[in-house]
Write a structure and sequence with these properties.
Length: about 500
């Protein structure tokens, strides 16, 4: 009997050790630009932040909503009151239990203008948030709000005492997620360790996640081949081509919800003129960019990703997506720029598709008389210039969402929290407001059809392409799933053989 008990104990102990063992070496192209989930906008920050913090709900790999810190919720018949029941016994990484008061505080922090949160526009329709019990939160809305549940995935729950002790969360991180912050070596690596009190049984499976900062794509690829790194979350198309068939490596691919873009500051001449913005669209040859930059692993894209099959308007319906040097020159002449003009495109060099797109755009714009200097900035400076609208034009990537409102409202509405373009259009504002407050799906589709057609040719963004999101993994990595959102949610289920 003792022998059997001893063997059982060994099996149990080894099972526990396996459930939380090993360090996953993840190579990423750039360091996080801060760790505050209510402030950051960069993909490099969210790769880390999403392992540390959680919201009431989360998006799964099929772009469906699932409970996270909330277990369930009810909606009043008029669609104005949402009551969420929270998981009990969830602890922050500092050991304190999370309660409904933390959800209320986290909401208030996002909406406080002093925070300057890019998430604020997602919750404009909320009139009040109250703790209606230790583990219950009630949201009241001023009118029905179709994207409310999907927007809640961006309401990360943070502890008040940590914010107050540090001023913000840019250099400290205390959440409820599967991993907690262990160490940051600037521009070298970020080390996360497993949360021993995580509420999901048997997760996380790894003891540590190490995000190695490796700017060079060739170095990341070489490290994946040799096993120095086990995961490359995003791989550019050129590198993906070289890694296909590499021994011990599997390349994953899915339709990206993020898009490449040329952003225009409409508070500066000549971009304040819709004819100039339309001319730029005619000057851009998107199919050529898809081939030259993405090696064909992308599609020309409009305001919504083709991954949102229910919502995206086919780009064939946008006249300005048919490249025409003659039409671009005609529009420039009508706007008072018959000889074109000079300008500057700011961008950054750590994401190959971004830097390459800027170079191709420079050549295409030159054909219609627009002489654009490309200024490749250090990524941190680029983010600050973007936030401060300190640009004429920029080339970058914008993240996607599971609802059209997530793409469009905060970006294009007057005063939207990521409307760095200074764009303001009463017709667009009205449609955006209708889109989020209309609950009938067919009516919403009609509204977003109008919006996409309105924005595609004369909006402040020249949408370029939605690529295939490539991820490289070693064959000893188990349980990892790709997400079209670029999220790394399933690292909590990932283990190493």
């Amino acid at each position: 009997m003792r022998t059997r008990l001893f063997i059982a104990a060994l099996v149990l102990a080894s099972g526990l050790a396996f459930a939380q063992s090993g360090t996953l070496q993840i190579a990423v192209d750039q360091a996080p630009v801060g760790l505050d989930p209510d402030i950051v906008t960069a993909f490099s920050s969210f790769a880390v932040v999403n392992e540390i913090y959680e919201g009431l709900l989360e998006v799964n790999a099929d772009l469906k909503l699932e409970p996270a810190l909330a277990t369930d919720w009810t909606v009043s018949p008029d669609g104005l009151t949402y009551v969420f029941n929270l998981r009990q016994g969830v602890k922050f990484h500092n050991g304190r239990e999370m309660t409904s008061a933390d959800v209320v505080y986290s909401y208030d922090r996002i909406m406080d203008p002093k925070t300057g949160s890019p998430q604020a526009s997602r919750f404009n329709e909320v009139t009040s948030v109250q703790a209606t019990g230790p583990y219950q939160v009630t949201f009241k809305l001023k009118e029905p709000f179709a994207p409310f549940l999907s927007n809640l995935t961006n309401l990360f729950v943070v502890p008040k005492e940590v914010v107050e002790a540090n001023g913000n969360l840019q250099k400290v991180a205390v959440g409820t997620g599967p991993y907690e912050l262990e160490k940051v070596v600037p521009d070298t690596y970020v080390l996360l360790k497993a949360n021993p009190d995580y509420y999901r049984k048997g997760e996380p499976k790894l003891a540590e996640l190490k995000f190695d900062i490796v700017p060079e794509a060739s170095t990341r690829a070489a490290g994946l081949r040799t096993g120095t790194y086990q995961l490359l979350p995003t791989v550019d198309p050129v590198t993906a081509q070289t890694l296909k068939g590499a021994s011990g490596v599997t390349m994953l691919g899915t339709q990206d919800l993020a898009y490449s873009l040329l952003g225009l500051n409409v508070s500066r001449k000549p971009f304040d003129d819709p004819k100039v913005r339309e001319a730029i669209n005619y000057a851009v040859n998107r199919p050529d960019i898809v081939q030259a930059v993405y090696l064909g692993n992308a599609v020309p894209g409009g305001p919504l990703s083709p991954g949102l099959k229910q919502w995206a308007v086919p780009v064939s319906q946008y006249p300005c997506y048919t490249p025409s040097v003659a039409k671009a020159k005609q529009l420039l002449a009508e706007a008072g720029y018959p000889n074109g003009f000079s300008t500057t495109i700011i961008t950054f060099g750590t994401i190959k598709e971004v830097a390459d797109t800027a170079q191709v755009l420079q050549a295409q714009l030159a054909q219609v008389g627009i002489k654009a200097k490309v200024d490749v900035e250090e990524f941190g400076k680029f983010v600050q210039d973007w936030k401060n609208s300190n640009f004429d034009m920029f080339v970058s990537l914008n993240g996607g969402a599971v609802d059209p409102d997530g793409y469009l409202y905060r970006t294009f509405h007057t005063g939207g929290s990521t409307n760095v373009y200074k764009y303001s259009n009463p017709t667009v504002d009205k449609l955006l407001e209708q889109g989020r407050t209309t609950t009938d799906t067919s009516q919403r589709q009609a509204i977003y059809d109008q919006l996409q057609k309105q924005l595609a040719c004369t909006g402040p963004i020249v949408h370029i392409a939605y690529g295939t999101l490539f991820t490289g993994v070693r064959d000893n990595v188990q349980g990892f799933q790709q997400m079209p959102t670029r999220g790394l949610t399933y690292l909590r289920e990932t283990s190493l053989k």
